[in-house]
Amino acid sequence: MNTMATLISKITVKALSIMLFASIFLGMSGAVLIAAPGSQPAIAAPSVVGPSLTIASNIPADPNSTVFVPVTFQSNGNSVASMVYSIDFDQTYLSINPTEAFSITMNLPSGFSGSCLYHPLELNGEVDCTIFSFPVKSLPDGVITTILFHTANPASGVNAFVNFAEDPPVSFGGIDGFSIAGSAVNGSVQIGGGCTSCGTPSKAYLPIVLNSSSIQPPQPGCTNYILNPDFESRSWWFFPATQATARYSDKQNHTPGGSWSALTGIYYLDWDWSWYSYSSVWTQPIYIPYNVTTVTLTYWENSFSPGPYKGTLAPEGTLPQVPAEGTKWGEKPLLGGNDLQYVVVLDPWGNIVRQLQWQQSDAEIWVMHQFNLKGFAGFYPSFHLAFGTYNDGFGAPSSMFVDDVDLEVCTP
Q1: What percentage of the chain has pLDDT greater than the value 70?
Q2: Do residues 170 and 182 touch, judged by C-beta distance below 8 A?
Q3: 26 belongs to a structural domain
Q4: Of 126, 49, 40, 39, whose CA–CA distance to 80 is shortest?
Q5: Residue 126, pLDDT above cutoff 90
Q6: How far apart (Å, rounded) are the C-alpha atoms in residues 171 and 27?
Q7: Is the Cβ–Cβ distance between 239 and 281 less than 8 Å?
Q8: 230 plus 195 within the same structural domain
Q9: Is 13 within the bounds of a domain?
Q10: What is the pLDDT of residues 356-373, one digit of tens each?
Q11: Cβ(373)–Cβ(297) under 8 Å?
């Protein structure tokens, strides 16, 4: 064999090896790219405008603080059932603490599963993410991942990059088993520099020191501090994974003209039996300054508990005991009582601070609740509101839908 033929042969073998490795990698990571037995090899389906992933640019952040960076998916008319992507970021000015709550959060609708792994020692693709559906269905548009970054204190302003890695590249899988050509738009975090009054926050407070990019500052008049209060977009709400993870739902909704709410617990029309579980949806971290006049929480809930108290509200004596303040929420079964639909205030580390709603109800209608939370003005570093349902594992299941959450903060 002459030299040219040998070279062509080596190039062909190498190209085939790369293609085989890529198909195995993408198949394992969730992208539907491998053809079924006996079919033609999977190729990219033609698309005028492909799906895209986007990270916003110039997201404002304070030095020595934290900032939420969302990853937004747009189908652009394509039916996307799975995807694989990796995120690389400027490790000089940005960092992730994987041990804290909500360091990396997947915001996925029912029927989709996903995971993100953080690799702090890698130079490319420190965060590797996979999303897939089973049975296969189309992923709706919205924020699919939120990363909580800690910022450094540069000597001057810095625009720290948050990019999609090129190795491996972003890949999309369609509902038909073919790959779909798409795109990825890189972003960045704009960190103000030279802050002499910032200091270095106490490590105990690192998870939750907020800045202007993650909460609206108080304005003259009144402002709703809840982001995405009607659940109509897939962002800002956090669904801790449990035996009955809460989720966005279109089964019930209260918002006029809306379609979505949050479903917590075990809905009796989906399951006719119960199991022990906490099922919560949390707000974004909230900090309310001291200089406010009123802080009013208003929300609507629709509760189901078709057990011994069907159509009624269970007597107070039948409810579980309220855990002591500072108890980690959701780690142990509640003492006494039966199922429970709750709203609690949690500190940044998931410990209970106060219970607001504490009931077992089968009202099966939308009910408004309202609480005065002015006592939490200045609560440092911040707090969460957790809406949810506790099932004790006995009898019929219980659930609660939540919608139109308004934390109205008024300033002079």
Answers
A1: 79
A2: yes
A3: no
A4: 49
A5: no
A6: 11
A7: yes
A8: no
A9: no
A10: 999 999 999 999 999 999
A11: yes
CA distance 199 to 62: 12
Other CB atoms within a 10 A radius of the CB of residue 289 amount to 11
- Same domain? For 134 and 245 the reply is no
Give the pLDDT score at 18. Answer: 35
Q: How confident is the model at residue 88 (pLDDT cuts 50, 70, 90)?
A: very high
Whether residue 274 sits in one domain with residue 339: yes
Query: Please, what is the end-to-end C-alpha distance for the chain in angstroms?
Result: 87
> Which has the higher per-residue pLDDT, 105 or 350?
350
pLDDT bracket for residue 120 (50, 70, 90): confident
- Return the residue matching tokens 């929300």: 299
Q: CB-based contacts of 141: which residues, under 8 Å, 6+ apart?
A: 72, 73, 74, 75
Residue 352 to residue 345: CA distance in whole angstroms: 6
User: CA 332, CA 102: separation in Å to the nearest integer?
Assistant: 21
Name the burial class of residue 131, with classes exposed (0-12), middle (13-18) and buried (19+) by CB atoms within 10 angstroms of its CB. buried
Average pLDDT over residues 253-280: 94
State the CATH number of the domain containing residue 257. 2.60.120.260
Residue in 39, 72, 296, 20 with CA at minimum distance from that of residue 183? 72
Residue 249 and residue 376 in one domain:
yes
DSSP state of 313: B
| Domain limits for position 243 | 221-411
